[in-house]
Amino acid sequence: MTNISFYHLTCHTLCEALPKLMERAYAAKLKVVVRAATDARVQELDRALWAYDNASFLPHGTDRNEQLDLQPIFITTKTEIPNAATVITLVDNRVDDDIKNFDRCLYLFDGNDPQAVTTAREHWKMFKSEDHQLTYWQQADTGGWQKQG
User: Which CATH superfamily groups domain 3-148?
Assistant: First the structure.
């Protein structure tokens, strides 16, 4: 079973929150694939990971890069996993059939978008019925995460 953590964004945008989560994964030497719904979102997340902190470097790549197998973080719209990731990060309420092939899944959704919240609830029920291990994290006012339930 995949350990799926839902991250309910309430005070920061995806582009503000994702780099911090990716920093933790990178520090733990985990390989991550981030799957977005559109190429425009891939480009937006790519820019966010490059520019979020001038004092930090968070190596990552997209479909436009070479040597994708060497990228610790790979951002894409496709279902390929060229970097042998063990962690998948789903954004834009995306869900793929291969989630069971990962040890961990980070599911980030915008708590200020009623449709995103409704879809996240539906995905929670679906994952629960598939016997995945689920945790729910809500963003605190400071931007950190508080485990709920």
Answer: DNA polymerase III subunit chi (3.40.50.10110)
Question: pLDDT digits over 122-146, tens only?
Answer: 999 999 999 999 999 999 888 789 9
Q: Residue 117 CB: number of other CB atoms within 10 A?
A: 15
Beta bridge partners of 135: 5
What is the pTM (predicted TM-score) of this model? 0.94
Which helix (H) or strand (E) segment is 139 a member of?
Answer: strand 133-139
Question: What tens digit of pLDDT does each residue of 82-126 get?
Answer: 899 999 999 999 998 899 999 999 999 999 999 999 999 999 999
Q: What is the DSSP letter of 77?
A: S
Q: Is the sign of the CA dihedral 56, 58, 63, 67 positive or negative? A: positive
- Burial (CB < 10 A; 0-12, 13-18, 19+), residue 59, is exposed
Chain centre to alpha carbon of residue 117: 16
- What is the domain partition of the chain in residue ranges? 3-148
**Going by C-beta distance under 8 Å and a sequence separation of 6 or more, which residues neighbour residue 13?**
110
